[in-house]
């Protein structure tokens, strides 16, 4: 009789304990997610505070959009020695031009055919 009562108690408690363990794991995962979200919110608040400053907005407009104030001059220096890609993959594109002696509609058709081949005339850079 005692064995039957023990088995009944085990049958009742094992699923409940398993469910409790699963719920605790879910709670821990959700708490970690909440903590990460709070960190993200703080970072976004700091970014919002930056964008509230007119000097920061002006700086970003100058850097990102190349805006200048009236009367200012903007210079863009292009370094021919700078490599943005390895030299083996750099390509210089020199697509052929449409024949200038052809009539205008012929030039348009030739430009359409050339545009259909974007790598036409491409040669590897030295």
Structure write-up:
Helix content is 59%, strand content 3%. By secondary structure, it is mostly helical. The chain folds into two domains: 1-76; 84-126, no CATH class. The protein has a two-stranded antiparallel ribbon. The longest helix has 50 residues, at 2-51. The mean pLDDT is 83.
What would the principal axes of the Cα set say about the shape? Answer: elongated
Query: Percent of residues in beta strands?
Result: under 5%
Mean pLDDT: 83
Number of strands: 2
What distance lies between the first and last C-alpha atoms, to the nearest angstrom? 93 Å
Low-confidence spans? none
Q: Share of helix among residues? A: 55-70%
Q: What's a concise summary of this model?
A:
The protein has 126 residues and is mainly alpha-helical. It has 3 helices and 2 strands, in the order ααβαβ.
Supply the key terms.
126 residues, mainly alpha, 2 domains, two-stranded antiparallel ribbon, 3 helices, elongated
Topology summary:
Elements: H1 2-51, H2 54-65, E1 91-92, H3 104-115, E2 123-124
């Amino acid at each position: 009789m005692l064995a039957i009562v023990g088995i009944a108690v085990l049958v009742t408690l094992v699923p409940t304990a398993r469910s409790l363990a699963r719920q605790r794991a879910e709670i821990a995962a959700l708490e970690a997610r909440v903590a990460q979200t709070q960190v993200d919110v703080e970072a976004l608040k700091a970014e919002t505070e930056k964008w509230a400053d007119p000097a920061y907005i002006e700086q970003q407009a100058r850097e990102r959009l190349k805006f200048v104030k009236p009367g200012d001059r903007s210079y863009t220096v292009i370094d021919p020695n700078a490599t943005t890609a390895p030299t083996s993959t750099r390509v210089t594109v020199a697509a052929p031009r449409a024949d200038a002696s052809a009539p205008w509609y012929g030039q348009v058709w030739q430009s359409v055919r050339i545009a259909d081949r974007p790598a036409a005339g491409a040669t590897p850079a030295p």
